[in-house]
Design goal:
The chain is an alpha+beta fold. The chain has a single domain, classed as Beta Polymerase, domain 2 (2-Layer Sandwich), CATH 3.30.460. The chain contains 7 helices and 5 strands, in the order H-H-E-E-H-E-E-E-H-H-H-H. Strands 1-2-5-4-3 form a 5-stranded mixed sheet, sandwiched between helices. The longest helix has 16 residues. The chain is globular, with a radius of gyration of 17 Å.
Length: about 200
């Protein structure tokens, strides 16, 4: 994957682009992260009510034992992410800030939170990326070897200087895709992710 340029990122960013121009700071797993998610999830449900179709803690902070940027990633599915009038005004009234709009990638939207440091990823119901995020999380929770492999890749990449955080995220694509493919193959063969780790 080619690194995204400032122009690429500005094209999908709502408001000013925020460069990093440095290294990524990873934190050791914090058992408070699930509680932070639970508080945000309760607030999102309060704001959107039955418009919430899926609401899950995803990303590295959702995997016990995994080092991560201390940013809570949350995936939200609504009926139609492209129909911003159905949910964005209420989210903004509650203090959430729309920061990313990617209509060409599953109508992806990202909000930042009013208090906690979160990335709230919004997709439409049935979007394959939602299932993929959850599959990746569940696999890492139950497979120590891939959890270690991903941790090592993150630590190595975090030592480099990055113009934007998204460039770091993009650099992880190869290892993420390898792990997702393994998890998907296991699932297709009738395996369950809740079983005891196999490695």
């Amino acid at each position: 994957m080619q690194p995204k340029t400032a122009a690429d990122l500005q094209a999908v960013t709502v408001g000013p682009l925020q460069p990093l121009n440095g290294k990524i700071v990873l934190s050791e797993y914090d058992p408070a992260w699930p509680q932070a998610f639970a508080a945000e999830a309760a607030n999102i449900r309060r704001v959107l009510g039955n418009r919430v179709r899926v609401l899950e803690h995803v990303g590295s902070t959702s995997v016990p034992g995994l080092a991560a940027k201390p940013v809570i990633d949350i995936v939200l599915a609504v009926d139609n992410a492209a129909d911003e009038t159905a949910y964005v005004p209420d989210m903004e009234t509650a203090g959430y800030v729309l920061r990313i709009r990617e209509p060409e990638w599953y109508e992806h939207r990202v909000f930042k939170g009013p208090a906690a440091n979160i990335n709230l990823h919004v997709f439409s119901t049935g979007c394959p990326e939602v299932a993929r995020m959850i599959l990746f999380r569940d696999w890492l929770r139950t497979h120590a070897a891939d959890r270690e492999r991903y941790t090592n890749a993150k630590r190595e990449l975090a030592e480099r200087d990055w113009a934007f955080v998204q460039n770091y995220a993009d650099a992880k694509t190869q290892v993420v895709e390898e792990i997702v493919a393994r998890a998907a193959g296991h699932e297709q063969q009738g395996g369950t992710l809740s079983a005891a780790p196999t490695d």
